[in-house]
Amino acid sequence: MKSHQALLFAAILTASPAAAFQPSCDSPDGCAIDGAHAGTYHMAVPDGWRPDPGAGDQKLVVFFHGHRGSGKGVLGNKGLVSRFTRAGYVVIAPDGYLFPGRNVRGWPARPRENPARDDIAFTEAVIADAARRLDLPGFDILMTGFSSGGSMAWHFACYSKLKPSAVVPVAGGLRRPVPAAKCPSGPRRLLHIHGFADSQVPLEGRGIRDWHQGDVYHGLGLLRATNACTSKPDALSTEGPFWCRNWTSCGSGAPIRFCLHKGGHTLPKGWAERAIEWHREGA
User: Fold this and answer.
1) Which residues pair with 235 in a beta bridge?
2) Which H or E run includes 227?
């Protein structure tokens, strides 16, 4: 079976004649975070970019790679990164936890399931470190990820007190165990994208050894309760290859959109444009 990272590369057109970005860590191994939540991440800024502290919060996309992937691999996908840097985003690609004895990186994305590192605290430290390195007062954050990285985006949105402006998980749901009633972090503006034919991470989730990927519908129901949305969507829409259900009249002011495409476990064509639009609509 292909790894999630190989599927990611196959899913995105890498056809940009020249990269529209510059890597921004001192080492090819990435920027290092020391201390209790140690790890590495990779970062790129738009080509020719200079910090402008007077311009308000800088647009940032945090992209969590899939299982067996890496932040370095994300930056190696010039098509993916350039789609965001051309839109004015700084791109951060954190490195998932390196599982002992397996030489594999991933995101457990479940409460208390990674005793060696708190991945939420690690990600918060990454964002703070990037702001320091770039001499910026803060970021306007779009958080996304693919497969287990999508689950990590959900996990961060549900549990972190740091509030992204928009969250766009792709092909990865909120993993079990889930909160009993609402996400502790409070309302979040979230667009979930998933393939109807996904068998790697099916919409209902699947059991793997002693854990479960989680049911996408259950996660969306939990977030609707958190966001004070009705159970029935306010609108249905067709946007290119996507069939979307939209909750726009949520009492919290944070809407939810759920978009399906007919494909499988992949980043579908047009997903990045949908993510950027979702972020801009909430600005």
Assistant:
1) 246
2) helix 216-227
